[in-house]
Amino acid sequence: MTEIERKAEIGVIGGTGFYEFLSDVREIKVDTPYGAPSDLIALGEIHGRKVAFLPRHGRNHQYPPHMVNYRANLWALHQVGCTRIIAPCAAGSLQPDIAPGDFVFCDQFVDRTTGRKDTFYDGPRAVHISTADPYCPEMRAVAIAKAKKLGLRHHETGTIVVIQGPRFSTRAESRWFSGMGWHVINMTGYPEVVLARELGMCYLNISLITDYDVGLEGRPDIRPVSHEEVVRVFSENNQKLRELISEIIRDLPEQRGCSCQKELLLAMPPEK
């Protein structure tokens, strides 16, 4: 155990426009076997709960999605004691009933990334973690209850397809994703969730919908996504997201009642 461990219980990995989640905090540098995380980790409290915040892309947004050191980020949060991760992100809608400004609490993902370091187990020990149900059901239940309390437009389930980036989808790709019945699209949701699972941490995805990917069929007034539009809609809904995360942190049970922490033990082969 190092001197920086056990400094937090809940980690928040922020997305675009969300770098000031905590105020009056202490920032610490955390070294990992996988290199440096995206930034310093900010430690503080919300409703008496110890929270660590890490900007996913760095505070100056200097790391595009395909260059984020996801392994270092998750390892650093685990090292400071986090057992739960809240991961808000900007996402595009693939379905007409999911509108910009909506929140989606995803329960499934589809990985369309390439070449990302997505495991801590590169050998010689083989660990095959289950991702049948990759997102923590206990955290999702709390998040859904808080969204209802705050009167936020939200969707209790959803499949997020994670693309490599940094480019946005072609119309053909978006039509394919939509036709498969997938709900939202993003560039950072994988491998974060799997790496958290490999460390026995619970993970909650909060997708804030900023656009209709490449638009909607038959709606020429809805234009394809642009970076400026993503930032604008995310910023307009930032306060709602802050309130939601604050409410979630306050009402998370102190003791975890899910099986997330057990999945790693089940995946571990017996030592000879």
CATH architecture: 3-Layer(aba) Sandwich
Dominant shape: globular
Report the top-level CATH class: Alpha Beta
Largest sheet: 11 strands, mixed
CATH topology name: Rossmann fold
Could you tell me how far the N terminus lies from the C terminus, measured between alpha carbons in angstroms? 26 Å
Helix coverage percent: 25-40%
Q: Got a strand count?
A: 11
CATH superfamily: Nucleoside phosphorylase domain
pLDDT under 50 segments (min length 5)?
none
Number of domains: 1
Mean pLDDT level:
89
Task: Give the ordered list of helices and strands.
Answer: EEEEHEEEHEEHEHEHHH
What does this structure look like?
It is a single chain. The chain has 7 helices and 11 strands. Helix content is 28%, strand content 21%. The chain has 272 residues and is an alpha/beta fold. It has one domain: 3-Layer(aba) Sandwich (Rossmann fold), CATH 3.40.50.
Structural topology:
Blueprint: E1 10-14, E2 26-28, E3 41-46, E4 49-55, H1 70-79, E5 84-93, E6 103-104, E7 108-112, H2 137-150, E8 154-155, E9 159-163, H3 171-179, E10 184-186, H4 189-198, E11 202-211, H5 227-236, H6 238-251, H7 260-267
Helix pairs in contact: 1-4, 2-6
